[in-house]
Predict the 3D structure of the following.
Amino acid sequence: MSASIPGNRDLPASQYDLKTYWGRVRQSADLADPRTLFVSSTGLENAKNLLSAYKQGQIKSMTPELWKAKKIVDSTLHPDTGEPVFLPFRMSCFVISNLVVTAGMLTPGLQTRGTLLWQITNQSLNVAINSSNANKSTPLSTSSLIQSYLLAVSASCSVALGLNALVPRLKNISPSTKLILTRLVPFAAVASAGALNVFLMRGEEIRQGIDVYPVLGEEEKLQREIEGGEVKSLGKSKKAATLAVGETALSRVLNATPIMILPPLILVRLQRTEWLKLRPRLVLPVNLGLILTTSIFALPLALAAFPQRQEVQAQTLEKEFWDRGGREGKVEFNRGI
């Protein structure tokens, strides 16, 4: 992200108020804007140069052009490494990457083979996205990555197949209710395995901790602009890591809930209409349209549930950080997304 750009002067975190939920929604919508995927490597370098000029004091104040450059950099580069996130796994590509997979999982009448295929595909994509956007101060080893992947796939397939077998055996419920419950099986599998996936893929952060930094006051920021140098980590905190991973897991469930519930329920109603009965070939495009529309709105709303750059009181972490907080006794860390 823009924190990796050379220069002593700090860039504003956002043009929106990140202390409010709506401000974070608008910021998340920028991060998830698929138009940034079409920015070339030259365009990215130009954006980085513009931001560097601001951080080095050559540009005095933020302009619309600078905000656009920051949007490009923030949606493309990882905040810890400063390197571009692989395009299919960026948040700006999240809706597109998940569209086909979600449509596959929500396909009516899936048999066992289809259910397994789409659950494995979904968890493979989740692993890639979670790994690419995790806090990189505590990387996951290859062996742990493979183990976490296998556990996540096993969990999602077990839930999906188990519920698919259970629903038809339910008694004293109407056929229409059984149909709705069958359509909601993918949600149960995705929500439970999605949260588990985050904890598994980022378990190393919880075991070893993640870097935390003092929150700088205005005087300290001005002094840093003059003297230069990076803000040094205070150390690694396991409590900060647990909070970061837990919030990210919850945001994944919040994102999956409307996407996996609304389209199948709406599709059930539409399939009962004469219009769609006479046009069975339109079921797939209608399903894709419902998923796409829901996903576009759900992603920024879920990402905004918690700040990406999280500030907490130092005394809520391990004792070694209690007297080392910055402004108002606070420390901060990258939550990951």
Q: What stands out?
A: The mean pLDDT is 86. The radius of gyration is 22 Å. The first strand starts at residue 210 and ends at 214.
